[in-house]
Amino acid sequence: MSSRQVFEQSIHIKAIATTVERCITDRHLMRRWLNPALRCDPVGDWNTDVGGRSRFIIQIPIIQPTLESIVLEREPGLIVWGFDGFFQGCDRWECQPQSQGTYLLNRFEFEINNPLIAFGFNRFAAPWTKADMEAQLRRLKRVAEEQQNL
């Protein structure tokens, strides 16, 4: 038995949408806002076009859970990564230009099919994951606003 979960958050960033998008898709800038316990490695060359592949590795000693990802959707201001591993789902990042910057919407949808993993996630990791995603948005905001002012 699986149940689909959705975590959604947004933030206003005082930077143009192309700058925000670059922070989301440039691997070196991603390192500055992703949780330090999360590593993103390309499969082949780094590519954020549809079909581009990467691995997100959670830096937990010994087990290092890994999610295989593929870019499912890509257009200016939008990237959707699909994930497969200990859960399946997608992570949507949408930059909406506004007069005073960019409204960034992040929607993470996923299913955990293994009941034991789902129980552990819901019991222990879900609140941490939500808080971490909000912290990532704040860090991304800082990076984008800094890049905008360069």
In percent, how helical is the residue content? 25-40%
User: Average pLDDT value?
Assistant: 92
- Radius of gyration over alpha carbons? 15 Å
Count of individual helical segments = 3
| N→C terminal distance | 50 Å
Low-confidence spans: none
Q: Given the C-alpha coordinates, what overall shape results?
A: globular
Main beta sheet: strand number and arrangement?
7 strands, antiparallel
Q: Which strand-content bin applies to the residues?
A: 35-45%
How many β-strands, per DSSP? 7
Biggest sheet strand line-up: 1-7-6-5-4-3-2
Structural class: alpha+beta
Listing every helix as H and every strand as E from the N terminus to the C terminus, the arrangement reads EHHEEEEEEH
List the helices and strands and how they pair.
Blueprint: E1 4-13, H1 17-25, H2 27-33, E2 38-42, E3 53-58, E4 66-75, E5 78-84, E6 88-98, E7 101-111, H3 115-148
Antiparallel strand pairs: 1-7, 2-3, 3-4, 4-5, 5-6, 6-7
Helix pairs in contact: 1-2, 1-3, 2-3
Describe the structure.
With 150 residues, the chain is of the alpha+beta class. 33% of the residues lie in helices and 40% in strands. The protein is built from three helices and seven strands, in the order βααββββββα. It has helices spanning 17-25, 27-33, 115-148, and strands at residues 4-13, 38-42, 53-58, 66-75, 78-84, 88-98, 101-111. Strands 1-7-6-5-4-3-2 form a seven-stranded antiparallel β-sheet, with helices on one face. It is globular and about 45 Å long. The protein starts with a strand and ends with a helix. The mean pLDDT is 92.
